[in-house]
Amino acid sequence: MVMRKWRLVLCAASVLLVSGFMVSSPVLGADQETLDRLEKIIRQQQTQIEAQQKALNDLQQQVEALKGQTAKATVKAATDSPAAVKTGNPKASIKVYGQVNKAVLYSDDGHNEDLYLVDNDNSSTRIGLLGSINPNERYEIGTKIEVEYQTNPSNAVWQEDKRYTPNDRFEKRHLDLWVDANTLGKFSLGWGSTASDGIAEVDLSGTGVVGYSSVGDMAGGQRFYDSSTGGLSATAIGNAFSNMDGLGRDERIRYDSPSFNGFTGSTSYVSDGGGDFAVRYSARVDAFKLAAGAAYANPGSTSDTIDDQMSGSVSVLHDSGFNGTFAMGTRDHKSGRDDGGFFYTKFGYRGRWCPLGVTSLSADYGRYSDIAADGDDADTIGFQMVQDIQEWGTEAYLGYRLHKLDRNGADYDNINAFMTGMRVKF
User: Fold this and answer.
1) What's this model's pTM, rounded to 2 decimal places?
2) N or C of the chain: less Cβ packing under 10 Å?
3) At the fourth CATH level, which superfamily is domain 92-425?
4) Handedness of CA 35, 40, 41, 45 (dihedral sign)
5) pLDDT at residue 283 above 70?
6) Can you tell me the distance from the alpha carbon of 415 to that of 381, in angstroms, rounded to the nearest whole number?
7) CB-side neighbour CA atoms (13 Å) of 239
């Protein structure tokens, strides 16, 4: 643009000079003064053009210098910034993920009130690595390494130990590898979820971070106070309530079938004997989102108390935000004990009431029978609220739960528990 401007100036100056020369040529020999004046004008214009050209060159050099500095700064920033993840295999991709979930827990056992600073065991603090290689479109080879570290777990702290940390170290959750063959299914090997893991915990309410069918995760270590003896009993909430959620995580080999019209079948074999199989279903029907699962599990020699068990759950979410969840299970005990059983139900609503994100509300009830001892009837009522803060990758939550245990020969007081905290994911 600058060069074009000066070309126009030079063109105009040339036209003026030529015009002036043509007009004055007839008297050129007679008017030496006019000739001298025109020569002076030409020299002045030439001087101005040279000055402008020098300024243009200087400006061009400054632009080039700035470009060089910007490029160097970009390279330095890229060099100084650590790479998110590097892998020794150029064909592999890797993802780092994790979360921190901390809360304040209040408990009243009918005789004492206590306040605890805890790690929320509903969804513990953890970190993991996901790796995958796709040698072709038909196969994926993957790995999962995930560990947790909990200080004062909410399901373990109790009246006489507010800093209960049974394993003050990282605990394994997944040390797993798999091969996904698409139309042939997925094969997994290592420490990870068995086929029945999570089968009793299907929940679309959005409030599972503070309350779901595993009701002991909030305050499971709290002992019931026995008014008949005037002291704490040996029975904790976690002993009296169980959602019979399959075989959990273990050293196993597992197979998952491809999905057929929303249905997926799974089976696994656990080290030292035992195994399970499960069926899951997921679909959208008009305005409803549906998820469900059921499983049979036999822990075999890995359990001294459980022979086998069946459990399952189903959850439905409507586009309006209303949702419902139901779970139930039964187990055969060894040593001639009565069979145990439970059912759990939850109703909730999810809506966007504020610019932060979705707000989820729910209320639940469950009865768990013959879990810790024959004749036990344990009841629970809970209320939950979770506020999603999308821009922060955070959920803030508040939960309340009442636990009641009826046992022959004992007079247990009810336990009330409140918990509030935040889960931050990355």
Assistant:
1) 0.77
2) N
3) Porin (2.40.160.10)
4) positive
5) yes
6) 11
7) 14
